[in-house]
User: Fold these one by one.
Assistant:
Number 1:
Amino acid sequence: MTNTEGADSKAKLEEFASDIVSDISAGKNPKFTATARTRSNITYDAKKGYLSLGNAKEERSFLNVAQSKRFMQTIAIAAKCHKFVEENLHTTIRGLYYQLKYSLGEDVDENIFNEQAESNPLIEDLEVSLNMRREDLNLNANRKGVLSGNVKIIDTFGNEKLEIDASKMGRSGWAIPSDVDNDIKFVDVKAKYVLVVEKDALWQRLNEDGFWRKENIILISPQGQAARGTRRLIRKLADMGLPVYVFNDGDAWGWYIYWTIKTGSMNLAYIGSDIATPEAKFIGVTMSDIEHYDFLKNMTMKASEVDLKRAQEMLAYPWINRHKEWVEELKKVLVTKKKLEQDTLQGPRLTFVDDYIRDKIKRGEFLP
Amino acid sequence: MTNTEGADSKAKLEEFASDIVSDISAGKNPKFTATARTRSNITYDAKKGYLSLGNAKEERSFLNVAQSKRFMQTIAIAAKCHKFVEENLHTTIRGLYYQLKYSLGEDVDENIFNEQAESNPLIEDLEVSLNMRREDLNLNANRKGVLSGNVKIIDTFGNEKLEIDASKMGRSGWAIPSDVDNDIKFVDVKAKYVLVVEKDALWQRLNEDGFWRKENIILISPQGQAARGTRRLIRKLADMGLPVYVFNDGDAWGWYIYWTIKTGSMNLAYIGSDIATPEAKFIGVTMSDIEHYDFLKNMTMKASEVDLKRAQEMLAYPWINRHKEWVEELKKVLVTKKKLEQDTLQGPRLTFVDDYIRDKIKRGEFLP
C-alpha cells in the first residue's frame, strides 16, 4: 500500500462505486472482492518477516441471500467515507456507525446496523478491497504514544501548515496521532536511531535526561501496546533508514508488544506491510542482563502464570523459534520462573537506564 | 496546599528529617503525624463542594512494634525523595521502589520492601504529613489527557525555557503531564471557558473543527478517567476564573468521570482541594437531550446492569442527590433503562456536535 492523500481516497472510492454501477447497468450481479482475512489466509513469510494475508479472495455479491445485507451495508459505509473525504472531516468507526444508524431515520423500523460489532468487519472488508487503510478513509483509530527527538512534524490543520519541533516539546513530547500519512510530513530527521520504550514512565526518565539529544535519536513510547498510528510511524522511520531498538519489560506483555511491532499481529495482518518493522531489535531487558549487571540478580520478580504460559506459546511460533537467542531467553524464564522489569534499571541511580541503553547498543547485544 | 517548587520541597523534607533527629537527640521516641486517610475521616463538605480529609490524625513512631518497620520505611522514602529533588530528576513510585530495593544490596537478606504495594501507602503518608503532593517530591504519576486552545505553556526542560503554544499543536494537541505545577507555567490564557470532553475521539472531532478557536476556549480530553495531572490542571484553569464544562457519555462511566473531576475521589481525598473543581457543570449528554434533539430517540442504547446499579448508588450520595436535576436524570435512566453516548451527536453530520455544545451553553442547560 502507498501513502494516499484525500484526492486518491476519493478517486478509489468512486472507482469502487462506479464498478458496481456498471455491473447493475449491464444487468449483472453487482459484486466486489476482498482478500480473505480468515485465520487460514494469514501467513508468516520468513523472507518478508511479518504476518500478512495470502492470496485467498472472497467475493461479496448483492444477489446472494447470505451476503445481500452485508453487501448493502458495505456500500453504505463506502458512501459515508466518500462524504467524509469530500468534507475533509474525520471521525471514528463509532461515529460512522451512528451516522449509518441515523441515515434511515426514525420512521424506518429496520436499522442499517443494530450494533457496531456488525459494521467493524465491513470497514476492514472495504480497507482490504480498496487496498487502503481506514485512516485514508478519514476514519481515525485509537491513538496512543508519544515522541521526542530530532525530527520536525509538518502537520496540516485546517488551512494552516504547522511546524512542530519534536525537540521542543519539553516534558510532554509530541502525541502521536492516528493518521501519520495524510496531510502530515516528517522532516529534518537527523537522528541516528529510533528507541521505542514500552513504558511511558521510562520514556519520561530518558526524556528528562535529554537522552535523545545526547545520543541524537528519536525517543518513542507506545505507552503500552502500540496503537496503529505508532506502529505505522515506526515503520515509516525505519523506511527512512533508521535502526529501530525496542526497550521493554522482560515479561509476557513486553515480549508481546515487541513482536507486534516487529512482525505485526493476526488482527492487522491485512495491513502487515504498512505497520510491521521486521528490522526491529529487542534491546532488553533480558534475563541474560543479569550476567552483565550483577545487581539485577536481586531485582527479579516471580514470573506469573501468564508469563510462563506465554513463553511456552512463543517457543512454538515459527517466527520466534527460528531465533536461537529468543529460544534461550524464553527457556531461561521457564527454568528460573523469574522475570525482570525495565524499571529495575533505575535501582543504582535514576540515570543508570541511560548507561544501560548506551552500553547495550555499543556491545551490539540485542535479541533479534 | 500551595504550588511548591524544588527549593520548598527540599526545605520541607529537611525540616521533616531534622524534627526526627531532634527527637532522637533529645532521647525522645522519634515520630511524625499524618492526617488519617481512613474511610471514616473522609468527609464531603457541601460548602467546599469536594471530598477531603477530616481532622483525625495518626501518629507514626519508631518505638512501637506495630509501626517501627513502617516508620523506618517512610524515612527511607523521604531520603530518596530528598535526593531526587537535589538531583532535579524525576521518577515514579515504581522507580522509587526499585531504588529502595537496591539500597540494601545483595548481601542483606532483608529488603526494605518486598513489594510495591508496601511502599505506595507510605508515599501517601509522606504527602499528607508534609502537606505536599508526590509531584512536588519529584514522583510522577501516570499521565493521560490532551489539550488545545488559546493558552501558552512555559515548560522548563533542563536549562531551557520552552514556550509551547497550545493553538499550534495540530491534530495531536499538547499532552498533559503528571506535574503541572513545578517549573511549568500557563500564560496568555485568553479563553472564555474550558470544555472537558471524555472521549479522545470527540476531542479530535471538535479539535479538527477548530471549535476551540471559533469559540475561544480551551479544549481538554482526559481520555477517559482523568489522571491527577489533568484534574489538577482543570482546577488551576478554574482558579484563573474560567468556567468548566464537562461533556461526557450519559452512562455510569461518564457520570463517574464527571463527579471525580467535580468533587474528587475517595482515594485522592487527601489532595481534594488541589484537584477537585466543584464549579464544573455537566453539559451532557443527558436523557433530557432527547426532548430537544428528536433524532436522539433513535440513538439510545440499552443501559447495562453496571449503568443501572451505578445510577442507583449515585442517588444515595449526598453530594449528588442534593441536586434535583441529577435525581431527575438518574431516574430517567432507571425508568427507561436506556442511555446515550456522546458519539451519537455525530449522527446528523460530523459537525453537529459543535452546534450541540454551542446550543447548550447558550441555553445555559447544564446539570450542576
Number 2:
Amino acid sequence: MAKTLEPKTKEMEFTSIGQRVPKLDAWDKVQGKTMYIHDVKLPRMLHGKILWSKYAHARIVSIDTSKAEQLPGVRAVITGYNTPEIRCGFIKDNPVLKKDKVRQYRDEVAAVAADTPEIAEEAIKLIDVVYEELPGVFDPEEAMQEGAPLIHEDKGSNVLKLPWKMICGDVEEGRKQADYIVEETYKLPFVTHCCLGTSGCIAQFDAKGNLTVYSPTQIRYLAQKDFQEALNALGLKGKKVKVIQTAIGGGFGSKLDTYPFEFITILLAYYTGRPVKLVYSREEEFFASPGRQPVRAKISQGCTKEGKLTFRDVEMILDNGAYTSWGATTPSVMMMPISSLYQVPNIRYVAKCVHTNNIYSTAMRGYGNPQATFAIESQLDTLAEKAGIDPWEFRMINRNKPGEITPQKFEVGSCGMKECLEAVKEKLQWDEKRGKGNGRGVGIASLIHVGGGARIYKSDGCGTILKLDDFGKVSLLTSASDMGQGSETVLAQIVAEELGLHVEDVDVIMKDTNLEIWDAGAHASRSTFVAGNSALYAARKAKEEILEFAATMLKEPKENLYLRDRMLYSRNNPEVSMTIDKLLRAAHFRTNGRQIVVSEFYDPPTQMLDREMKGNFSAAYTYGVHGVEVEVDKETGQIKILKMVIAMDVGRAINPMAVEGQLEGGGAMGLGYSLMEELHLEKGKVLNGNFLDYKIMTFPDMPPIESVIVETYDEKGPFGAKGIGEPPLVGSAPAIANAVWDALGVRIRELPITPEKIVAALEGKKGS
Amino acid sequence: MAKTLEPKTKEMEFTSIGQRVPKLDAWDKVQGKTMYIHDVKLPRMLHGKILWSKYAHARIVSIDTSKAEQLPGVRAVITGYNTPEIRCGFIKDNPVLKKDKVRQYRDEVAAVAADTPEIAEEAIKLIDVVYEELPGVFDPEEAMQEGAPLIHEDKGSNVLKLPWKMICGDVEEGRKQADYIVEETYKLPFVTHCCLGTSGCIAQFDAKGNLTVYSPTQIRYLAQKDFQEALNALGLKGKKVKVIQTAIGGGFGSKLDTYPFEFITILLAYYTGRPVKLVYSREEEFFASPGRQPVRAKISQGCTKEGKLTFRDVEMILDNGAYTSWGATTPSVMMMPISSLYQVPNIRYVAKCVHTNNIYSTAMRGYGNPQATFAIESQLDTLAEKAGIDPWEFRMINRNKPGEITPQKFEVGSCGMKECLEAVKEKLQWDEKRGKGNGRGVGIASLIHVGGGARIYKSDGCGTILKLDDFGKVSLLTSASDMGQGSETVLAQIVAEELGLHVEDVDVIMKDTNLEIWDAGAHASRSTFVAGNSALYAARKAKEEILEFAATMLKEPKENLYLRDRMLYSRNNPEVSMTIDKLLRAAHFRTNGRQIVVSEFYDPPTQMLDREMKGNFSAAYTYGVHGVEVEVDKETGQIKILKMVIAMDVGRAINPMAVEGQLEGGGAMGLGYSLMEELHLEKGKVLNGNFLDYKIMTFPDMPPIESVIVETYDEKGPFGAKGIGEPPLVGSAPAIANAVWDALGVRIRELPITPEKIVAALEGKKGS
C-alpha cells in the first residue's frame, strides 16, 4: 500500500527527502547569531521582575509598595490590588497577580518595571507584604481527605471536576478471563524541562493600544488568543494582538501554555507605555516554570495462559498543584497507551487531579504517556514472568498491527511495532543476554504515540503560504514552530523535493501571528505530519501552476513535464530543459504575468474524543521499542547503562539525521527521567532548584544510543512520515526498570531508579 | 460610465472609502516610535564611513590605508584595489569604489568599518590618497564640444547613447499651419530632495552567505535584484538576498535607485563578518544623494488664429553628471507632457544627456515632468498673448478630453481637465484679477501625469496576500511602499471597505522581500492605483470565499448576502445577522475548515513604450491645474504668493485628507522649486549643502493652499481612483511664472524665480 510512495524511476528519485541535511538553523546557532528572547532589545525597553510568595499557603494581609515606588528608575509597581483581574490557565483558576491569598510558593504577589534589571530586583526587595500563614496540604491523597485545607475555597473540594474516565469492554469480564493477574502501584516524580533558554517575553503597546508580545512560545496562535484577555481586562477589546516568536531555547511543553508572568509583562507595558522585558533567572526557571506532573498509578493487568492480555485497569491520582495548567489534561493522553498499547479488549481508566499547595505542572514531552507507559510496561514484565512467557514473546503476542481499530477507536494505519520489536531484539542480543541475573540485564518496553497530530482543539490545522520569486527561491511562511526539533529543515526538504529545488533555496519563515496562517502549536509530535502536509500540499499547488505555465509556454503536454534539481525537464522531449528561475521569470514578466503564490490550510482528518473519550484523534500512530542493557553494582546500586537501542517506526525518515537527533535527544531525556531527575519539594518549596542539585544527563553520562529507523510509509503522512518528537523519551524508564529486574530480580516501581532505591530493594528482597 | 461605481443603496454606501481617515502611521510617528534606519541597531553592528573624492576630476596615483588600518576599533578598510569590481546605476557605469580615476566630488575612494561612527570618521581621515588633478568640464554644452575632457574615456564621447527622440505628426507642417509661433529657451536648476531621513542602510550576512539589507528604499524588489550583483562579485552567486524596508523618512525618488554606498556597506559587512550600518550625515545627504537633473530646453509652439495648437518642438540638454542613474531616463517621462498635454497634432522631441564632472542626478517627484511643463506652460501664456487670447480660454480650447488617444498613443480614460480649469478659474477670481498689471497677478498652468502606473519595467505589477484571522482582523501583506504618502492607510481603507470591516481591523505589512510578493516600487504615483487594485481584487476573492461559506452555513443564497460594519447581513432576510469574526471562526473551526487566505498579483493593462517611444504606458492619466495669485514688489523683486489653488482630477479621493496632504505637500515642494531651491555648484563642488544655505519652504513661508478634488471615477482604478503623488508639484512653477508676468509683464524663464531675477528682468524691460 503505502510502499507505492517509493520512487519508481530515476526522475522520481528523491533529492531532498531521506537526505541527512544538517539543521538549517545550526550555522547561526553555533556562531551565536540566533536571537533568543534574551538577546532582543527594543528602544526604551524596561525590565520587569516578579515578587513571589513567601509561603505555600497564606492570607495576604497587606502589601506596601511605597518604598519600591520611590526607588529611582522604577517605572511601575503592580499588584492584584491596582490592576484589573486577569485569570489564566486551562480552567482560568489562576489570577495573574494574587489577591487575598497565596496558594503556592510560585504565586505572583507583585511586579515591578524599572530601567534596569538590577533596579527591578532591588525594588522587589522593597515591597512589604504582610502574610498570615495557613495550614497547607502537600500530598494529593491527604488533600482528598475530609477536612483537608481547601486550596480554592470556592470550588468546595480539592478534586478537580474533570472527565477523566474511560471504559472499553468489560474489565470484570476481563478479570474473569485472566489466568494471571498482577496488581501494583507505580509512582512518578515531579521533574522539570530544564530548557537552556529560560522563560521570558517582551510586551509592547503601539500608540493605538495594539499589543505585540515577543515570546519563545510553542503556541503563538493560542497565546494570541489568550492575550486578548489582557486587552479585554484593560478595556482594549477589539484591539489587535500580535505574537512574534523569538528563537526557542528549548520548549518540551513548558512553553505550551500562557502563564502569569506573560500577563504581568503585558500589564507592566501597559502601565508604563514602554516595552517591558521579563526573563526568568535560572533559579526562577526551576521553581516558577511548571514541569511534569507527579502521578500515582494503581494498575492491574491480566492475561490468559497463552499470554493474551484480557484486561487493563488503571486508577491514577495526579498532584495538580495550586492551579490548573495543561498538566491536568495529561490523562487524555495517558488513555492512549492504556487503551491502545497492545491489543487489550477490556479497559478501565479513572484519573483524579487533586489540588495541593505544591507548584502546578504543565505539558512535558510525552504529555502523560511516559508515566502511563512506565506502569504498563513495567507490569507487563511481571505478568509475563508470572505466565512463564519471555517478555519479548509476550509483547509479540499482544502487539498492535497495521489497520487495526483499538478499543478507544483509534484507526491504526501504518504500524511497525513488530519490526521495532525484532530490531531491538537483534541489536540487544536478547536471546544471549536475557535472564542471566548476574548483575547485568536487558529490558525492553514498547510505546504508542500520536504521529498524525492530535485533535485537542477545534482545529488541529496548520497553514502555509508559498511564494516563489524571480530567482527560483521560495519563501515558505509556515505557522509551525521550530523549538529545536528541526521542523524548519524538514519543511524545507519537503518543499524543495516537491518543487525540484534545493533545500537552500527555501527560506522558512515561522515567527509572527500576523504573517503566517493559524496553527495549533508545537505539541503532540505534530509538526512534521501536520505542517509537513500543509507545506507539501501547498508545494503541489505551486508545482501545478508552474507546470501549467510551462506547458503553455513550451507547447509540451503538462503530464510530460517535471521539476528536478532546479530544472524543468520533459519525460519525452530531451530538448526541453530550462532552469526553474528562468521559468519563474518568464511566468512573471509576461502580459498578465504573475509571481506564483499559493496558500494551503491542512487540518488532519481526525476526531475530537467524544464524551466516552473515544475517537480517532490522530491521523497516524507512531510505534517504537526501547531496549536497554544495564550493569548494576549490587553493593552500591549504581546503574551503568551499557547500551540503549531505540527503534522507532517513523513512517518515513524525511531527514534521518534529524530523526536520530530526536531519538538520541529523547533517549537522553528519558535516561534523566529514569535515573536521576526529581524536583524535591518540602512543604511545597523547591529544594534543589539549580543545576548543581537537580541532575540531568550530561555528555559524560551518556551511554551509546543505537537508533533504528523503521519506515512503514504511512499513506496519510507527508512522503509517508509520522511524528517522532516525543516517543523516543516514552519507553526509556520501563525498559531500564525491566533490565534492572533482569539483572537483579528487583522491581523498582518509583522513578527515578536511584542507587538508594536499588539497594533498598535488594535489602527488601533479602529480607523477604 | 464609471459613475456606476457610486453607491446605489444604503447597503452600498461606503464606510471607509471617501472618509478622512488619519494616516495609520501617524500615531507612532508623533510618539517617536517609528523605526527609521537610524534607529535600527543589530547585535555586534559596526559603522561604515566613506572617503569621498577631493577633486572633481583627477587620476588616483595611490591610496595608502595603512594608518587607518592600524587605528584601534577599525575592522576593515576597503578600496577599489582590494575588492572585486561592482558597478551600479542605470547603465552600470558607476564602479562603487573608484580606481584609477575620480570623475566627481561624490566619488567613493575608500571606506571603513569600525566599532563606532567616531572611529570610522577618524579612520577616514587617516587614509592618504595621492591625486593628479585633471581638467574638468562642468557645463553640458561645453562637454559636447570637440576636445572637451572626456569623463569616461572608453565611451569616446560625453554624450550618452540614449534613445530620447520622439516624432508625432509633422512639425514642419505644424509650423506652416501656425499663425503665431513662439520660440524660447528655458533653464531648470539642480535641486535636491531634502529628505529629513538621510540615506543609509545596514548590511548583514548570515552564516551561510545569505545577505540581508535593511534599507529605506522605495524599490525593495529591484534593490534585491541589484544586490545580487554584489553576491556575484563576491563569489556567492545563488545565495539569497533579502531586503527589509525600514520606515522611509522621505523618498521623493531619491531612494528609487541603488547607489555605491549600499554596495560598499555590503562589502564591509562581508569582509568583517558583522552587520555594518552606514548612514549619511546631513552634509553628505546634500552632496552625495543625487537630486533632480538640470535641464536646458529650447521650445517652440505655434497656434492658429483661433488658438488651436498646431505643433510643439522641444530640444533638451540634460546635465548627466559623472555617472548615470535614473536622471538620464527622465526624458521618457518628459515626452508625456510634450506629446499629450493639450491636443497638439505635430510634435518633435529630442533630448541629450551629457556627462560632466558635476554630481549626477536621479529620480525626483515628477521625474522630468516639472521641467518640461515649466517650459510648455510658461510659453503657452506667451503664445496666447501673441494670439490675443485669454490664457485660460487658450487652455480650454486646447484641453484634453475623456476618451481621446494622444499622439504618443496614450489612451486617455477619465479626464477632468475641464473641471479643474473651471474650478481654478472660479477660486482664483480669474476674470476680476487677471490683467491688472499693478504688481499683483494671477497665473495658471495645467498638467498631465501618469495615474495608472507606468510600465518602465517588464512588470508593473504589485502583489497582495490577505489573511483573515479568527478575530475578524486582516493581515494585508502588500509589496507597496509607504514613504509618507499614505499608501498604508489607503490600502487599509480599500480592503476594509470591500470586506465590510473597519480600517483599524487591517494590519498593513510592507517591509520584507521574503514576505510580500513582487512590486515595481514606489514611483510614478502608482501605489494607490496598482497596489490599490491588487488589494481590492484580493479582498474581492476573500469576500467571495466568505460569502460562499456563509451561504452554505446559513442556507441563504449568496447573492443576498453582504458584509458591512463587521457584520454579515442578508438583503432579503432580516434575521440573518452575524459578526464577521464569528463567521470566520465558524469557517475555521469546522470539518475541513480553514482560515481564509488569498493572494493576488495585479499588473495593469499597459504597454512599454515602443521604439518610437509610443504606447499606452499607463492605465490612467491624472490631470490637474495650478492657479496662483502673486504680489511682487517692483523695487526688491520680492514675490508674495497670496493664494495657491491646486485642482486635481484624482478619479476618486479614497481618503480626501490624504489627497489634500499630497496637494499641499506637492504644492509646497513646487513652491520651493519655483522660488528658492537651487543646489549651487562651483566646478562640480556643492557650495550650499546645508539647510542654512539651501532654502526650502518652511511653515512661515507657506501661502494658503486651496485644494480642489475633482472626481471623475476612472473605471480602471480601485473604486475609481487614480494616482496623485507627483502631480501637485508639477504645475507650480509655470503658474507662478505666469502670475509674475501678469503682475509685472516680465517673463522669467529660469528657475528659481528669485527677486534678483525679477529685478534684472524689470531693468531689462526698462532698458529695451
Number 3:
Amino acid sequence: MKKAVILLSGGLDSATVLAMARRDGFECYCLSFNYGQRHTAELAAAARVATALGAREHRVATIDLAAFGGSALTDASIAVPVDGVKEGEIPLTYVPARNTIMLSFALGWAEVLGANDIFIGVNAVDYSGYPDCRPEYISAFEMMGNLATRAGVEGASLRIHTPLISLSKAEIIVAGSKLGVDYGQTVSCYQADLQGRACGVCDACRLRSAGFAAAGVADPTPYR
Amino acid sequence: MKKAVILLSGGLDSATVLAMARRDGFECYCLSFNYGQRHTAELAAAARVATALGAREHRVATIDLAAFGGSALTDASIAVPVDGVKEGEIPLTYVPARNTIMLSFALGWAEVLGANDIFIGVNAVDYSGYPDCRPEYISAFEMMGNLATRAGVEGASLRIHTPLISLSKAEIIVAGSKLGVDYGQTVSCYQADLQGRACGVCDACRLRSAGFAAAGVADPTPYR
C-alpha cells in the first residue's frame, strides 16, 4: 500500500481530501499543526476525522507562526474580519508562508516514511486571494521538493496532490458526502469556541454555510 | 536600509554569512531555530554572534523536527557519526527537509517585515551529500518563494543569498576573519556540551578544525 502524508487541519476541505486519498488506496499519515491559531478546536476535530476516516497515524507538530504575526489568525492584535471577503484582495486571515511551512514539514515526514505523495486541500476558487493556493505555486513547490530530498536525488518523484483545487465548496461537500465524510466532526470557523461551535460570520463560516446551501446538503455545523 | 532575514545557527558558516550581509549594507533580522537538536549550545552562540555583529533583531522559533526523527541530529536512537564523512553518501546528520523548513520560516518573516532578501549559509563543497545544499535546490526554492507570497504576487523579487555556496571552509574562515567575526563565539560541533565545548571527532568538528588549519588561522574552538 502506497503511503501518503495528508495535511489535515480539521476543517471541511482537508477532511474531504483525506477521504479522497483513502479512496485512491493510500495508507494515510495525517499531519496537523499547533501554530498558535485562534481556532484550536480544529485540532480536536482533526483527531476525530483521522480516526473516523481510517488514517494510519495522526501527528500534531507544534510550529511557531505566531512569532512573526502578520495575520488575523496568529496575531492577537489583528481582529478576524466578519464582514465578508473583498474581491481581489489578500484577506487578513492569510498567514504568511503557512502553506509553504506546512508542506515543508510534510516533505520531511514523507522523506522519513519513504512516501512520495503529499495531499493538501488548497482551493483556488474560494481562496483566490491567497498566493499559496494557486496551481503555479503548488507546481513550484513540487519541483523544489524533488530537489530538496534524498528520494528526489535518487530518482523518486514527489507529487503534491490538490484534489480540491478547482472545486467549488458545494462540489467539495457533495464529493465528501458520497465518501462518507461526517462534516459534523469538522470545524472551519476562524474563531470557533473550545467546544468547536462556529461564529457564523467569519469568512470561513460564510463560505462553508453557503456551500452546504448550494450543495443541497443539510448544514451539520454547531453554531453558538 | 534594506532589510534581510539571516538564518543564523550559531555555527561558523552562518556567523560569516551575517558578517557578509552587514558588509553588503543590509539591516539584519536573524532567525534561529530550537528544533530539538542535540547541540543546543548553538542557540546561545547564535545570540552572542547576533549581538556582536550588529543584528537589528534575533528571534528563535521553536519547530518540531524531532517529531519525524530520521536524523542523528534529532533522533536520540541514531548515534552521531564520529568516523568521518564518506564520499557520495548522504550523512546520518542530514535532517530531512531542514533547510526547506527553515527557509520557509524565513520566507514568512520576510513577508511580514517587507524584506526581499534571505541569507543562508549553505555550502555545496563540504556538504556535497546534502540534497538541500545544492545551487539547483536554492534556485527552485527562490522560484517557489516568489509564487508563495503577497510580495511576489505584487511583483517584488525574492532573492536567496548563498554567499558561501562555493567556498571551502578555509576560504570562509579567511573571509569572516577579515570582517571581524570572532569564531571563538561560534559552535559547530554536533554534540557540543552545555558550555559549547566541542567533541573534536564528529563530522562538523573535523571540517571546522581542518578549515582553520588550511586557512592558517589559530583554531579558537574550546574542546572538552
Number 4:
Amino acid sequence: MKFIQSVQNEKVKEWKKLTAKKGRDKAGQFIVEGFHLVEEALKKDYVSVLIVDEHIEIPHGWNVDNQEIYHVSSAVAKALAETETTQGIFAICDQKQLDASSYSRVLLLDGVQDPGNIGTIIRTADAAGVELIVCGNGCVDVYNGKSLRSTQGSIFHIPVIKGDLQEWIPKLQAQGITVYGTSLQDARDYREVELSERYALVMGNEGNGVSAVVLQQCNQNLYIPILGEAESLNVTVATGILLYQFCK
Amino acid sequence: MKFIQSVQNEKVKEWKKLTAKKGRDKAGQFIVEGFHLVEEALKKDYVSVLIVDEHIEIPHGWNVDNQEIYHVSSAVAKALAETETTQGIFAICDQKQLDASSYSRVLLLDGVQDPGNIGTIIRTADAAGVELIVCGNGCVDVYNGKSLRSTQGSIFHIPVIKGDLQEWIPKLQAQGITVYGTSLQDARDYREVELSERYALVMGNEGNGVSAVVLQQCNQNLYIPILGEAESLNVTVATGILLYQFCK
C-alpha cells in the first residue's frame, strides 16, 4: 500500500497541476473528485491513479483490482480538493484521443465559454443518445473541476474530445452525416425540417452563437422560435430542445 | 431632484433590506440592478422607485416621466449592489398578485431550489409562450439577485407569483386546463401523448422531482426518455424540452 503524508510530496505537486488547464494539456490527463465521478471513471476504464483519504473506505462494489492506489493524509486530500467539503476520493484520468470514424450522432461545440454550461450540455447530450462530442478551439476546457461536476459523470459515458470544427465538419460530411448549424439568420424553424438520423449539431457561444465561418460549412441551419418576449434561450436549454428533436 | 449621499440614510437602509427574502416578503417589493433589467421593469410598469448613481446618465430612450427618481453617491450604489461591478442603476419593483382566472399555458414549480435554475426556467418559459408561472411553497425566492439576473428580464414579461400548488391545480382543472406532472414512475413518454393546448406543466425539485401529493393531483404524468447513460436531465433543460413540445 502506498501512503503519502505530506502536501510537499512530488506526486501531490504533480497531481495538483491537473487542476489548471496548462497542467492538464501537458499531461494529457485530468483529475476528478467525489464518489460518483470516480465510480463512473473506474467503470469506463479512464482511471490511471486512484487517490483515497486514509480515513475513507473504498466502497465494496468497486472493482479496483490491478488499480494503482495511493492512500493520503487528509491534508493532502484537502490540497487536491476543488470543492469546499471534499469527499476525500480522487481519480487521475487519461484524456481520450479519437478519430472521426464511425459516429452517427455528433455534437459540435463552437466557443461555449461557461464551465457549468459545457458540463450540463455534455450531460444533456448523453441523455439524448449522442455518441461523440467535439469541443472546438474557442471552448472552455471541459476538464476543469466545475465542468466535470456539471457533467454528473456523463464525461465518462461518451467520448468528449478537443478538435478544430472546420476540419471536423467536412470529415463528417464525407461520411454522409448532415451537419446542422444553429443561427437566427438564414435558418429554418427546427420543427419544420425533416432531420437526418445521421447528424451533427453545432451549438455556439453564449453571446455570439456559432461563428460565421462554421455556419457556412453546415448543410442546414436551424433556429428555435421565440414565442414570448425573451431575447434568447440559454444554450444548454436550446441544446436539449434540438437534440431531443432528433430522437423522435 | 432627490439626492442621497450617505449609506446611513434611512431610504438606503430600507432598500438594502430588499436584498434579503425577509425584507422582500415584508415589503411586497424587490430590487433589480443593471440597465437591461431596469429597462424591462420600466417598460412593464413594475417600477416604484428608480435609483441612479450620480455619475450615470439615464438612457435617452427611457420613459421616466412621473417616475420617482433618486440620484445617489457611488458609495450608496455600491452598498445596494449585489454584483461585483455594478452598473449603478437600480429599480425598486412591486411584486404582483394575481388570481387563477384566464390563463391557458401555465408552468407550476414544485420545490425548485437553485436560484440560477429558477431564473433560467422563467426565461425558458417566456421563450416558449407560457402565460403564468406559479412558484410553490418549496421554491427558492425568485426575487433574489441571482434568480433575477438569470431571468434576463423575463421576470417582467410574464407574471410570476407564489402560491400553493395543491390549491392551484384543482382551480386550473376547473377551468378545463389539463395538468401534466413530470415523474419517472407511472408516467408516459412525452412524445407519445397528445398534449392539450390548454395546459399546466409541473416541474419539480432538482433531486427529488415533483412531490407525490402533487403528482396525484395531475391529470397525466410525463417523462423524458434517457437514451444514453445519464441518470437524469438538468431541470432547466427538461423544462425546455417539455414546454417546446406543447408548441408544436
